[in-house]
Design goal:
This protein is of the alpha+beta class. Helix content is about 20%, strand content about 20%. It has a domain of about 50 residues. A hairpin with a 2-residue loop joins strand 1 and strand 2. The longest helix has 11 residues. About 15% of the residues are buried.
Length: about 80
Protein backbone atom coordinates (compact mmCIF):
# COMPACT_ATOMS: atom_id res chain seq x y z
CA UNK A 1 0.00 0.00 0.00
CA UNK A 2 1.37 3.42 -0.90
CA UNK A 3 0.68 6.92 0.39
CA UNK A 4 -1.47 9.18 -1.72
CA UNK A 5 0.05 12.41 -3.02
CA UNK A 6 -2.04 14.48 -0.58
CA UNK A 7 -0.98 12.57 2.53
CA UNK A 8 2.07 14.25 4.06
CA UNK A 9 4.45 12.34 6.35
CA UNK A 10 3.59 14.79 9.16
CA UNK A 11 -0.04 13.64 8.99
CA UNK A 12 0.99 10.04 9.51
CA UNK A 13 3.09 11.01 12.55
CA UNK A 14 0.28 13.11 14.03
CA UNK A 15 -2.10 10.16 13.80
CA UNK A 16 -0.27 8.39 16.67
CA UNK A 17 -2.67 8.18 19.57
CA UNK A 18 -1.59 10.26 22.57
CA UNK A 19 -1.00 8.43 25.83
CA UNK A 20 -3.59 9.02 28.53
CA UNK A 21 -4.19 8.39 32.22
CA UNK A 22 -5.32 4.82 31.56
CA UNK A 23 -2.04 3.93 29.82
CA UNK A 24 0.29 2.52 32.46
CA UNK A 25 3.93 1.45 32.53
CA UNK A 26 4.41 -2.27 31.85
CA UNK A 27 7.22 -2.31 34.42
CA UNK A 28 5.72 -0.56 37.45
CA UNK A 29 2.12 0.51 36.77
CA UNK A 30 2.79 4.28 36.87
CA UNK A 31 1.33 6.50 34.14
CA UNK A 32 3.00 5.78 30.80
CA UNK A 33 4.65 8.59 28.86
CA UNK A 34 6.49 6.45 26.28
CA UNK A 35 5.16 3.89 23.78
CA UNK A 36 7.81 1.61 22.30
CA UNK A 37 6.48 -0.14 19.21
CA UNK A 38 8.32 -3.36 18.43
CA UNK A 39 7.88 -5.76 15.54
CA UNK A 40 6.20 -8.12 18.02
CA UNK A 41 3.89 -5.57 19.72
CA UNK A 42 4.24 -2.55 21.95
CA UNK A 43 5.47 -1.69 25.42
CA UNK A 44 4.43 1.26 27.58
CA UNK A 45 6.85 2.89 29.99
CA UNK A 46 6.93 5.65 32.58
CA UNK A 47 9.76 8.15 32.07
CA UNK A 48 12.08 6.29 34.46
CA UNK A 49 11.67 2.86 32.88
CA UNK A 50 11.82 4.28 29.34
CA UNK A 51 15.26 5.70 30.09
CA UNK A 52 16.30 2.46 31.79
CA UNK A 53 15.24 0.11 28.96
CA UNK A 54 15.70 2.18 25.78
CA UNK A 55 19.28 1.14 25.10
CA UNK A 56 18.65 -2.54 25.84
CA UNK A 57 15.73 -2.65 23.38
CA UNK A 58 18.07 -1.40 20.65
CA UNK A 59 17.12 -2.31 17.09
CA UNK A 60 13.94 -4.13 18.18
CA UNK A 61 12.19 -0.73 18.41
CA UNK A 62 10.28 0.27 15.27
CA UNK A 63 8.90 3.52 16.75
CA UNK A 64 9.63 5.37 20.01
CA UNK A 65 6.71 7.69 20.89
CA UNK A 66 7.94 9.92 23.74
CA UNK A 67 5.65 12.28 25.68
CA UNK A 68 7.97 12.82 28.67
CA UNK A 69 8.02 16.54 27.86
CA UNK A 70 4.57 16.61 29.50
CA UNK A 71 6.32 15.95 32.84
CA UNK A 72 8.04 19.33 32.77
CA UNK A 73 6.28 22.25 34.46
CA UNK A 74 5.68 24.66 31.56
CA UNK A 75 3.81 27.10 33.81
CA UNK A 76 6.79 27.94 36.03
CA UNK A 77 7.31 31.66 36.62
Amino acid sequence: MSNTATEAPETMIDSVTALGALDVCDSCGAQAYVRATLTSGELLFCGHHAAKHRESLGDKVVNWHDETSRLRDDNAS
